[in-house]
Write a structure and sequence with these properties.
The chain has five helices and no strands. The protein is mainly alpha-helical.
């Protein structure tokens, strides 16, 4: 899927978050998802990167689980 390829091109989120507890990743991803761009722009830049890395990682993992279960998302008629 093209959008997943584009997200994968950002880098290996597993490597970025190595050693971080899955619960912390989920918490940060949830925090990032709950905010809009204006609110996130007010965060410290380091926290912005951490939140967005967790959100990206979570989205990648969900997509990888979902794609095999939903062939129509893979471009298969």
């Amino acid at each position: 899927m093209k959008w997943l390829d584009e997200v994968d091109a950002l880098g290996d989120t597993d490597a970025w978050l190595e050693g971080i507890a899955p619960s912390k990743i989920a918490d940060f991803a949830g925090e990032a998802d709950a905010q809009n761009a204006d609110i996130l722009s007010r965060y410290d830049p380091v926290k912005q990167v951490a939140l967005l890395a967790c959100l990206t990682h979570t989205a990648r993992m969900r997509a990888r689980v979902q794609l095999p279960q939903e062939p129509h998302l893979q471009g298969v008629p």
